[in-house]
Design goal:
With about 300 residues, this protein is of the alpha/beta class. The chain is built from nine helices and twelve strands. A hairpin with a 6-residue loop joins β1 and β2. The relative contact order is 0.15.
Length: about 300
């Protein structure tokens, strides 16, 4: 594993959020491979993954907000946008030639073992073709890339099931991509109110582009009536064992629902459905992240 990554190869690796497509963040060859395999525009920067604070310190300009959030949530499902140090060895392509860098400290035991062992950080976007939904089991990664990648490490189902929260800390803190670590908890730690990202027009994070996280078939959100042919995604157990109905959580737990979202999209697609309907999901707690993803999926 470390030899493959060291020499500019790529590998599908598990994290607690979703599976990633990893490459050595110092080497142009690995980064080019990642962009090519994903079919990702080079203007969309990658997240750099580290074992710990000390490792990341080589590449980032520290700030107090980062230190506080790191202490509370890392390793864990949160990504920080920070200013990049001028003498950082990270290949410029990783950050799409920006002077900022996205850093994350993943929690999954397997990726931590690898990060501890190697002497370079890993650039790692989600291991899916651009605009598809992220993979949550090793087999999903194989289905995305087939024999185009030689190495996929099976670390079981990604517990969280959706991508990390992305927070911009380069000026006043702002969430660019909602996740399981939600706004309220971050506000409590930082003791301040976060800016509302929906109020800014410029796309700061290319992952905020509209069409993203698409299961490949049309998705309709805020639905209350089954059209008799679509797959119908909902919360609860009202339609238990009924054909065409897929519950994200039997007891309407939003965290569980988030963890089942992409898995359910893939199951539905495999079953051959042509359309997906999704009932209204409460926009609180983890529901904010779910609504963000399904809204984008509905732009198909
Ligand atoms: O949970 C995760 O974050 C997963 C796992 C594998 O770690 N990774 C992931 O990576 O979701 P990706 O590439 O699919 O999404 C990274 C997001 C994109 O929306 C990208 O535009 C944004 O982070 N991003 C990366 N660098 C940035 C930067 N310098 N400024 C603003 N946004 C950035
Ligand atoms: Mg992605």
């Amino acid at each position: 594993m470390s030899i493959v990554l060291n020499k500019g190869g790529v590998a599908g690796l598990p994290t607690e959020t979703v599976y990633g497509l990893a490459g050595n963040a110092y080497i142009k060859k690995s980064i080019e491979k990642i962009f090519k395999l994903k079919g990702r525009p080079k203007s969309n920067p990658l997240i750099v993954h580290y074992y710990n604070f000390e490792d990341a310190a080589k590449d980032i300009v520290m700030n107090q907000h980062f230190i506080k959030l790191y202490k509370n949530f890392c390793p864990g499902p949160i990504t920080f946008i920070l200013k990049k140090k001028i003498n950082s060895k990270i290949h410029p392509l990783v950050c799409a030639n920006l002077n900022t860098i996205a850093v994350r400290f993943p929690k999954h035991r397997f990726i931590r073992t690898i990060l501890k062992k190697i002497s370079f950080p890993l650039a790692m976007p989600s291991a899916n073709k651009s605009s598809n939904v992220s993979p949550v089991i090793a087999k999903d990664v194989f289905e995305e890339f087939k024999n185009q990648i030689k190495l996929i490490l099976d670390g079981g189902k990604s517990k969280i099931g959706i991508e990390s929260t992305v927070i911009d800390l380069t000026s006043s803190p702002k969430i660019l991509r909602p996740g399981i670590i939600e706004k309220k908890i971050i506000e409590k730690v930082l003791k301040l109110k976060l800016r509302d990202s929906s109020k800014t027009k410029i796309i700061r994070s290319p992952g905020m582009m509209k069409k993203h996280y698409s299961p490949g078939i049309p998705v309709k959100i805020n639905q209350d009536k089954h059209d008799e042919k679509s797959a119908f995604i909902y919360l609860g157990n009202k339609y238990k064992n009924k054909r065409d109905f897929f519950s994200l959580s039997n007891n309407s737990n939003l965290r569980e629902a988030a963890s089942n979202l992409y898995k359910t999209f893939r199951i539905i697609k495999k079953k051959g459905y042509k359309k997906i309907q999704i009932s209204k999901i409460p926009n609180l707690g983890c529901g904010v992240a779910i609504n963000d993803r399904i809204k984008r999926a509905s732009k198909f």
